[in-house]
Amino acid sequence: MSELILFWHRRDLRIDDNIGLAAARDRSPKVVGAFCLDPQILERDDVAPARVTYMIGCLQKLQQRYAEAGSQLLIVRDLPVHAIASLAENLKAKAVYWNRDVEPYAQQRDEAVSNALKEKGIEFSSFWDQLLNSPEQIHTGIGKVYTIYTPFWKNWRRKPKPAPVATLANAENLTAEEREWAGIIALPTAKDLGFIWENELLLPPGEKAAQDRLGLFVDRAIEAYQEQRDFPYMEGTSMLSAALKFGAIGIRRVWEASKEVYEQARSDRSSANIETWQKELAWREFYQHAMYHLPSLATAPYRPHFKNFPWENNEAHFQAWCEGKTGYPIVDAAMRQLNETGWMHNRCRMIAASFLVKDLMIDWQWGEKYFMQKLYDGDLSANNGGWQWTASSGMDAQPMRMMNPIAQTVKFDPEGEYIRQWIPELRSADPEALVAGYIREDLCAAVDYPQPIVDHKLRQREFKRRYKQQKQLFS
Questions:
Q1: Where are the domains of the chain?
Q2: 99 and 129 in contact (C-beta within 8 Å)?
Q3: What residues have CB less than 8 Å from 263, skipping those under 6 apart?
């Protein structure tokens, strides 16, 4: 009889190109998957209903994929230190395998599970799967963590990238006796877990949808990525962020696809566009490496002079920002897109974040949390890294960046197409005035759209003054 290996899924909801799962199958044909519904995650106050809905959908597809491979995905609900160790013991598993994560809670959780398995005499092994290069592989010449992206990219791009690994196939399932009692439950719906999301997800859950989306992107959009990615009314991005967050697609498959299309590029222009997308994959890894090496980023600013920054934290202004009622159309369109779809275009994430921090002077952590409460692709490393970069509290060679919402609109939504899509009450406004932010007061009153709640120029000067003052205190 084959020894049983239990594979614990977390951010790798697929059976294709899964390093830990492939290693488990190499050891034994009897591989069973497990997923733990962890109350330490699900009961947080920054969990987005759209994100849970996508995750549950991925788990449904994953169960189907396991069945096709001849095995089974088991669902348990408890703290992993109890649930995974007990499940392995009840199944008489020889070992538990899983893929590692960079987040502070994940590292603490995995250590606790490792210790529980040791006590029960059950073997365990962990692997790096969600990154092309692990945090131990990329460091400065003196062995330090990179805190600036450009030198990280130059080093990262030179490192060899692993090829995709085989899909789980021809696995053996549990026997009837083994299934009799193992503490497993039926997969609940998102509503069963208390999360209501009734809008359509922008990317359907599961491996096939992610692979199809990747194929569509590399066939149609990647060769114009650099030129189109910043225009929110265009479909110029890959839309794979949620799939990468939950591992519905393997990062090696993604890199392989980008490399193949790069090698087939017919012009320097196409090559440059493709490399720009590869740089975005490197940004993803840069923020994950930073989170792994500097776990304090999860709860505090990277730059010390932001720890006691004199924020205003006006509750009414924050609520206006959340609802998309600031009187700055590009900001409001972005927030409404987020609230309605669970996603926001990346250029707009920067514009909306900059406005909250540098115009409203509200603590960036308020915005970071609100994004996590809404985003279906919400990822701690990427969200935190993006907010800190925009707020000037993070890792940036030129941290003092200010985004003028009007200038951003003129440059990236020059006809007001994105604004009119998400703010329907302004569709009758003159396009030139709409883009320039000079909407007539009588029109605003008629359609119940607010006038600007702050003056950008005045607030920009004030933020710069406070920023300079704080730096001096720490110099």
A1: 4-129, 131-162+208-293, 304-473
A2: yes
A3: none
The single residue of 89, 227, 280, 462 carrying the catalytic annotation is 280
Q: Which CATH architecture has domain 304-473?
A: Orthogonal Bundle (1.10)
pTM: 0.96
Cα–Cα distances (Å) from 19 to 25, 100, 287, in that order, read 10, 11, 21
Q: How far apart are CA 77 and CA 17, in angstroms?
A: 26
| 28 Cβ neighbours under 8 A, 6+ residues apart | 2, 3, 4, 5, 94
280 is catalytic: yes
Per-chain mean pLDDT for the chain:
95
Q: In the predicted model, is pLDDT for residue 181 greater than 70?
A: no
Whether 98 is catalytic: no
* 4-129 matches 131-162+208-293 in fold: no
Give the separation between CA 346 and CA 241, rounded to whole angstroms.
Answer: 11
Catalytic residue flag (residue 283): yes
CA distance 237 to 54: 19
Q: Note if 197 is an active site residue.
A: no
> Out of 123, 153, 346, 417, which one is annotated catalytic?
346
Residue whose C-alpha is closest to residue 303's, from 293, 311, 294, 312: 294
Strands in 123-127's sheet, in edge-to-edge order, are: 73-77, 30-37, 4-9, 95-99, 123-127
CATH: 3.40.50.150, 1.20.120.1200, 1.25.40.80, 3.10.580.10. Which one for 131-162+208-293? 1.25.40.80
**CA 246/CA 13 separation, integer angstroms:** 6
CATH 3.40.50.620 for the 4-129 domain, yes or no: yes
Among candidate residues 389, 382, 396, the one with its CA nearest the CA of residue 358: 389
Residues 6+ apart with CB under 8 A from 423: 324, 329, 332, 333, 336, 449
User: At residue 397, does pLDDT exceed 90?
Assistant: no
